[in-house]
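User: My instructor asked us to take a sequence, write out its structure as tokens, and then describe one feature of it. I'm not sure where to start. Here is the sequence I was given:
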Amino acid sequence: MTLIINNHDVEQVLTMEATIAALEKSYKDLATGEAVCRPRIDIRIPTSDPKKNYQWGTMEGGSTAGYFAIRMKSDIIWEDNYNGVVTQEKYCMQPGTFCGIILLTSIANGEPLALINDGVLQHMRVGADGGIGVKYMANPDAEVVGMLAHAHDGLQCGAHHQKASGVQPDQGEPREVRRGDAPPLQHRGQGLRQARGRL
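Assistant: Let's start with the prediction itself. The structure tokens for your sequence are:
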């Protein structure tokens, strides 16, 4: 039976520790040939609005551990300008909502195992990747973590800080510092609130 797993379900069961462990195993499997992946490919189609394009993006991978997954994203994209800084914006259906879905299958018999909303999972993956970098590259006495973000990264900054806190627990209070003419991070407040709430 194919499971339908939403963001709330993922949030209840997926921990940062489990995410980083899964990623580290996946990267080792890639190095030894036990796993494969295809980088993201985007297809763009003009819409009736000359300033906007439809974008369909996919990336996929699997391993001898028994699973294959494809991540699919459906977006409307356009460019915006904040005081001379050009940013790419996106949404699905309406600004502030997004569509990312993962189809998980079994490599043993081809069975579709689950359809998973990717919102929470994606933030956890990005944060865990940052945590892997901290784990292997940061000085043991490091106390400050710096994160560069674009307009959609506020929530992911919260995930980055959550993971880095587990690796370097004395990094202190999360703060935002941005260039004076940089566009505001659309979700930075929520991301920083999440980071503070989890420390």
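For the description part of your assignment, you could build on this observation: The chain has two domains: 3-124, 126-198. Try explaining in your own words what that tells you about the chain.
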